[in-house]
Design a protein that fits this description.
Helices cover about 25% and strands about 25% of the residues. The protein has about 220 residues and is α/β, with parallel strands linked by helices. The longest helix has 13 residues.
């Protein structure tokens, strides 16, 4: 349908990761994802959801009076109307971020949006889906995330940071430990030992709410 998106949930919480971690944020979670990362914690967003018009989404977002809005999924760019939604959110004056797998083209994303692009590591089981052509479309206010499942993933991620000059291209390079696979302490020690120009992060929502839906 022309002006609709399939939405899994819209909720108000604290941003759990990336540059705005800890800030009150409205999350718009779109339904559907073409990837199946082995560590995915939002499989409930793969199907179902509710069809909402863009105006209805904007009305729900506005009801929370937010400063920050995060469009996430699933993979939000799998639905073409994600692009006009991002534009409308920016026009409404919000600071907007987009969480995307990096497997789909980001070139049409409104330049006002902070893209948080997840480069898939070998341990994700979806490394072959990385669209490296997206890197040329990254701007200084964008962010790149690596979810680290092993030492192999860590070494691979460091090589990509160097190969593509990511620390100079975007504002934040984020290294996250995969829950239950690499401890936060272990990843922190690797980052410190190599003096990397990255931000090691833990997912605040997992610490506070044990990853319950709606947070």
């Amino acid at each position: 349908m022309k002006d609709t998106l399939r939405i899994t949930e819209i909720f108000f919480s604290l941003q759990g990761e990336a540059r705005t971690a800890g800030l009150p944020t409205v999350f718009v979670r779109l339904t559907g994802c073409p990837l199946r990362c082995q560590y995915c914690d939002t499989a409930y967003a793969f199907s179902g959801g509710e069809l909402l018009t863009l105006d209805a989404i904007l009305e729900q977002v506005a009801s929370y009076r937010p400063r920050y809005v995060c469009v996430t999924g699933g993979e939000p760019l799998a639905q073409p109307n994600c692009i006009p939604l991002l534009e409308k959110l920016c026009d409404a004056g919000y600071e907007v971020s987009l969480e995307t797998s990096g497997a789909l083209d980001v070139s049409a994303v409104d330049p006002r949006v902070s893209k948080v692009v997840d480069l898939k590591t070998p341990g994700s089981a979806e490394m072959g889906r990385n669209r490296y052509e997206n890197i040329v479309h990254l701007r200084p206010h964008d962010q790149v995330k690596f979810v680290i499942c092993s030492r192999e993933d860590y070494d691979w991620s460091v090589s990509k940071v160097i190969q593509y000059g990511l620390a100079e291209r975007v504002s934040e390079v984020l290294f996250s430990p995969s829950h239950g696979q690499v401890s936060g302490r272990q990843l922190a020690e690797w980052v410190i030992a190599d003096n990397l120009p990255v931000r090691m992060q833990l997912q605040l929502h997992k610490i506070l709410w044990n990853d319950e839906p709606g947070h």
